[in-house]
Amino acid sequence: MIGLISATSAGAAARDRLAAAWPDRTRVYEGPVGDAVRAAFAECEQLVCFLATGAVVRLVAPLLGDKGTDPGVVCVDEGGRFAVSLVGGHGGGANELAEEVGELLGARPVVTTATDAVGVPGLDTLGFPVEGDVAGVSRAVLDGEPVELDLEFAWPLPALPANVGRPAPDAVRGRIRLSDRIVRVAEHEVVLRPPSLVVGVGASKGAPVEEVLGLVESALHDAGLSPACLAELATVDAKAEEPGIVRAAERLGVPVVTYSAEELASVEVPNPSEAPLAAVGTPSVAEAAALVRGGELLVPKRKSAASPAMATCAVVRRPARGRLAVVGLGPGARDLLTPRAAAELRRASVLVGLDQYVDQIRDLLRPGTRVLESGLGAEEERARTAVAEARRGQAVALIGSGDAGVYAMASPALAEASDDIDVIGVPGVTAALAAGAVLGAPLGHDHVSISLSDLHTPWEVIERRVRAAAEADLVVTFYNPRSRGRDWQLPKALAILAEHREPTTPVGVVRNASRPDESSRLTTLADLDPATVDMMTVVTVGNTATRDIAGRMVTPRGYRWQEAAS
Ligand code: SAH
User: Fold this and answer.
1) How high is the pLDDT of residue 566?
2) Which of 23, 165, 299, 391 could form a disulfide with 315 if both were Cys (CB 3.0 to 4.6 A apart)?
């Protein structure tokens, strides 16, 4: 819950906007501000104070405890110009909250945490536990000091700056380790604890939670493995509701993941047995459930100490799942690139894309991001490279203009990808949508996009689709409409449409939508001059109902209330 506190009427107005926008996330604290801040501090995970920073500093100072548990505090000034992340930038989520509040109120987020300010990922924001001297090692990373990076296994980390790597041993000023083993954390060292371990569990009906929990904990402990890296308990579908397993998972703070007996039966395991085969239909539950997604068996099946033993478990280090984010950059303007796209670009340690798109967003990348750019025509290579890097356990962003799934890299990349990587799609504003917004409302009724590039598609196929769109009276946006070597396709496509539409049908031509040299013109099927069209352009042809209304291209949707009025 976010506690909202204000003192003046201007503050209260801004407060009410926030409360109205986030009714389920916020609670307004009325009354004297001192009491309100104290109450909110005790009851909420976050506070937004519509007060001067000085006032808030004085009020929260006596309440501050530990940065791991204190709420995040954001201050918004009287004029609503700034949203200041004051306390709990990372742990309390105040940095993110300042961004969000800023966006909502039109205020500028002010974030002073060093790691965010210079674009280095905070070691405590990686989404998993970190042990050791987080502040000291973060400082060394930021100060450009030589910091050793010691990865026991691959994991899709965000980019780290160049001073983090393999410095000469006597130069090392700090160390970042990634390990799932129980290790003694040295001075100037942090240990990253990614969720790399899966424990497969089997349990007889009614197995006590203490027995299951004790077994899991001792299996990890005896093998020298850290419970902080536990990702999930895995078992067979039939045991999904088994209280001993469900409660043990709750106590460990991890989910229970289940698989069908059939799937588990197909997994090769070192220690199959008859008992589970008879009971649930697979010769192995614990080992098979732990191994079903692949990985390295660190602890083979073992039984609980009780007699008779009612639980079994096995521990697997699962292969790191690389991340492939397929990110649409939008049509060009920076403010049409979504915040989610920007976050994914910052999350990546490897960026793959066409050189001219990479140039558009280079400033958004974190220092240390490996950029693999290539020119036009290297699509296949880009798709392969992106997938191969993700399969190596990297965090990869593959970029495309507009939406990366529309005449772009997503489909060739995903055609190459297997299910051993995570794929995150970030939609983008397409050229057709950007052009539509420039022209008016041409896409108000059913519409299609057709690429006129016959490099990869035989012209007969393209022509058949244009004809179908013509007959179906669809609004058509032509992509890749015309280039130096391909000049007859657009006139031909327009001629096909003209067989079904009046010469006066509106046609919108938009070049470089949302880019600095954007231009657009509204013309007609009869008057369109193909020479005004090039590869930076999309051409949108109306249907039989599309009109030029006050210089804007409008395709009516046929609303009844409009008919009634006319
Ligand atoms: N993935 C992109 C399309 C890539 S195909 C998208 O979703 O929009 C490349 C074609 O898109 C270009 O030949 C041009 O026809 C069109 N295009 C891309 N960006 C454009 C822009 N800003 N303005 C006009 N047309 C654009």
Assistant:
1) 54
2) 299
Residue 75 pLDDT exceeds 90 = yes
What does the pLDDT look like over 127-176, one tens digit per residue? 899 999 998 898 888 888 899 999 999 899 888 888 898 888 888 999 99
Position in ligand 1 atom list of the atom nearest CA 431? 8
Is there an atom of ligand 1 within 6 Å of 535 CB?
Answer: yes
pLDDT at 118 over 80: no
Give the predicted TM-score (pTM) of the model: 0.77
Give the CA distances from residue 13 to residues 55, 191, 252, 385, in Å, rounded to whole numbers and listed in that order.
Answer: 19, 46, 44, 52
348-351: long-range contacts, CB 8 A cutoff, minimum separation 24: 348/158, 348/159, 348/323, 348/395, 348/396, 348/397, 349/156, 349/157, 349/158, 349/159, 349/160, 349/394, 349/395, 349/396, 350/386, 350/389, 350/394, 350/395, 350/396, 350/397, 351/396, 351/397, 351/399
Distance from Cα 389 to the centre of ligand 1, integer Å: 27
Ligand 1: centre distance to CA 132 (Å): 48
Omega prior to 308 cis, within 30 of 0 = yes
Nearest in space to 543 (alpha carbons), one of 440, 443, 430, 401: 443
The ligand 1 atom nearest the CA atom of 403: 7
Choose among 54, 55, 56: nearest CA to 74. Answer: 56
- Please compute Rg for the chain using Cα positions: 29
pLDDT at 328 over 90: yes
Q: Which of 538, 539, 541 to mutate to test the pocket of ligand 1 (most atoms within 8 A of CB)?
A: 538
Four-point Cα dihedral 295, 296, 300, 306, nearest 10: -60
How many Cα atoms occupy the beta-carbon half-sphere of 163 within 13 Å?
17
DSSP character at residue 42? H
| 30 CA from centroid of ligand 1 (Å) | 52
Asked if 493 and 519 count as a contact pair (C-beta separation under 8 A), the reply is: no
pLDDT band at 77 (very low <50, low <70, confident <90, very high): very high
The vertex-319 CA angle with 316 and 324, nearest 5°, equals 150
- Ligand 1 pocket, 327 CB below 6 A? no
For 189-212, how does the pLDDT look when each residue is reduced to its tens digit (9 = 90+)? 999 999 999 999 999 999 999 999
Of 337, 356, 407, 486, the residue with max ligand 1 atoms within 8 A of its CB, to mutate for a pocket test, comes to: 407
